[in-house]
């Protein structure tokens, strides 16, 4: 009940063409174009739904919105009451925004670091399956998770755990927490940092071979691999990371575990089973056994 899954991420980007070229060449992902009012928007075809990742032409690179899918109108009302009681101002999305999201209901509020967080009921399927390269089977399957770093970590944890009722899956001292709203290991992770920034967005793949083929394409096209191929200790996903045109990471991953209500949160200690070598300093590095 309540928030069911990560639905969409919207980004203000200074170079839409570079983004769509990256997704086309490396991930075999198509793009459609739409408008919100008079504003253009590029929608990346990650799965059969209208979109999961939206790119808005802008003079700056910044988060535009983070969207969560809610179970029902009744649950949307309940969550609205919880947010209001916690001091957040909740507003209805515009008619144009509802249509663009493919939703039946849309509300939004501003989180403690100034990002717009949306709560949507309903999703619109617009294709039976997205087109993919002949060697991808099935290739990209959707949007996995979002990692946000901020000096206001405690306030973000309070929002997601106490108000939105996400559950803590595990953590890594000091200051890195993985939260879930369904059986997927995590849909958002929150980290301590000196400045607020997106660390990465994960693009989910259907098989380890699809991750490998994406890695081959990234190398062939000179895409910067910011974190090498590896396997995470906590969710067991196999992935690599690329640096996108806006400067943060995209994780190309497969194989994250699911957890149930009997799961016990714990410090998972070492960050990786193997691999995941950083091209630059790791902001979440910590001494581990």
TrEMBL record:
Keyword Plastid carried by entry: no
Pfam families given in the database record: Glyoxalase (PF00903)
Domain of life: Bacteria
Domain VOC: 5-122, 142-255
Keywords annotated in UniProt: Aromatic hydrocarbons catabolism, Dioxygenase, Iron, Metal-binding, Oxidoreductase
Required cofactor names: Fe(2+)
PANTHER family: LYASE, PUTATIVE-RELATED-RELATED (PTHR36113), SLL5075 PROTEIN (PTHR36113:SF3)
Family (UniProt): Belongs to the extradiol ring-cleavage dioxygenase family.
Entry protein name: VOC family protein
Organism: Streptomyces edwardsiae
């Amino acid at each position: 009940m309540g928030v069911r899954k990560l639905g969409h991420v919207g980004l203000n980007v200074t170079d839409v063409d570079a983004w769509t070229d990256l997704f086309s060449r490396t991930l075999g992902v198509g793009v459609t174009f739409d408008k919100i009012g008079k504003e253009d928007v590029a929608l990346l075809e990650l799965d059969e739904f209208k979109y999961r990742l939206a790119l808005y032409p802008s003079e700056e690179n910044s988060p535009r919105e983070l969207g969560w899918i809610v179970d029902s109108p009744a649950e949307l009302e309940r969550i609205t009451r919880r947010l209001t009681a916690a001091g957040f101002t909740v507003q209805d999305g515009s008619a144009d925004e509802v249509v663009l999201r493919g939703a039946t209901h849309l509300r939004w509020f501003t989180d403690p670091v100034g990002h717009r967080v949306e709560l949507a009921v309903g999703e619109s399927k617009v294709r039976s399956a997205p087109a993919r390269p002949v060697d991808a089977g099935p290739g990209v399957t959707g949007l996995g998770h979002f990692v946000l770093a901020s000096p206001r970590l405690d306030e973000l944890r309070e929002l997601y755990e106490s108000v939105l009722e996400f559950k803590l899956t595990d953590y890594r001292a000091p200051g890195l927490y993985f939260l879930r709203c369904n059986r997927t290991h995590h849909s958002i992770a929150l980290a301590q940092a000196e400045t607020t920034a997106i660390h990465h967005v994960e693009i989910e793949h259907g098989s380890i071979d699809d991750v490998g083929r994406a890695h081959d394409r990234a190398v062939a096209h000179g895409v910067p691999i910011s974190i090498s191929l590896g396997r995470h200790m906590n969710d067991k996903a196999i992935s690599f990371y690329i640096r996108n045109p806006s400067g943060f990471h995209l994780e190309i991953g497969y194989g994250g575990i699911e957890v149930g209500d009997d799961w016990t949160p714990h410090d998972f200690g070492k960050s990786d089973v193997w691999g995941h070598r950083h091209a630059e300093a790791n902001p979440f590095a910590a001494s581990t056994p």
